[in-house]
Amino acid sequence: MSKDYIIAPSILSADFARLGDEVKNVLDSGADWIHFDVMDNHYVPNLTIGPLVCEAIRSYAIKDGKPACIDVHLMVEPVDRIIPDFAKAGANLISFHPEASAHIDRTLGLIKDCGCQAGITLNPATPLSYLEYILDKVDLILLMSVNPGFGGQSFIPSTLEKLKSVRGMLNAYEANGGKKIRLEVDGGVNASNIAQIAQAGADTFVAGSAIYSKPDYKAVIDSMREALKGI
Ligand code: DX5
Ligand code: ZN
Predict the structure, then answer these.
(1) In this structure, what are the phi and psi dihedrals at residue 102, rounded to the nearest 5 degrees?
(2) Core-most of 78, 80, 167, 184, by most CB within 10 Å?
(3) Least distant ligand from the CA of 39
(4) pLDDT in tens, 4-54
(5) Domain 6-228's class?
(6) How far is the CA of 228 from the centre of ligand 1 (A)?
(7) pLDDT tier for residue 2 given thresholds of 50, 70 and 90
(8) Residue whose CB lies within 8 A of the most ligand 1 atoms, among 36, 71, 153, 205, for a mutation test
(9) Which residues, other chains included, contact 79 with Cβ-Cβ below 8 Å and sequence gap of 6+?
(10) 109 CA to centre of ligand 2 in angstroms
(11) Most distant CA atoms of the chain, gap in Å
């Protein structure tokens, strides 16, 4: 049975001068979602894009005639103030880092109240205990496989064991009647390591530099899909 894998290119590595076309091209090349990295030079040591840019790309993020998921990854602190702005700007899924929110349950509720799917993001050294009381409120768990702040870093191998643990947790949750929760991985993902990452339990893959640094996005995405076949 082939799994329902999602490939979500991070536009952090796209050409910002041509961002609309970069979004359109990567979806036309076979990507499923657009991963949108928001950095504030406070929670992480870099500064990127905000709701205005999300709104600007919304009409370019179309797949098979329908809006593609804009997967907003908030690396900002505090988080709550900016969530409604992203919802209004057309975000479909919003994830945040628990260390950046004073009230994690409240932030998850706010994302839902704004009509978006909610995700929680764990840094390489952030423990899984954060997941203990929130599975019923999250649609996606995002495991960082690099320290957040920059594209183009190398995949941290210990993420594989962490993915296996979360996959076990999610399988048990689903077996007990819980809903499907996506398990996303972000940082250093490429066509050579994606199979191993999928084997460890991820079903949703962010890739920035691996896709946008190459001239032919379709060739990269095809090679990722090829690597995922049969897993
Ligand atoms: C890192 C970002 C990632 C990053 C991925 O803070 O959250 O989404 O851009 O880029 P690559 O795939 O180049 O590691
Ligand atoms: Zn990201």
Answers:
(1) -75, -25
(2) 184
(3) 1
(4) 999 999 999 999 999 999 999 999 999 999 999 999 999 999 999 999 999
(5) alpha beta
(6) 20
(7) low
(8) 153
(9) 96, 97, 100, 101, 107
(10) 21
(11) 48
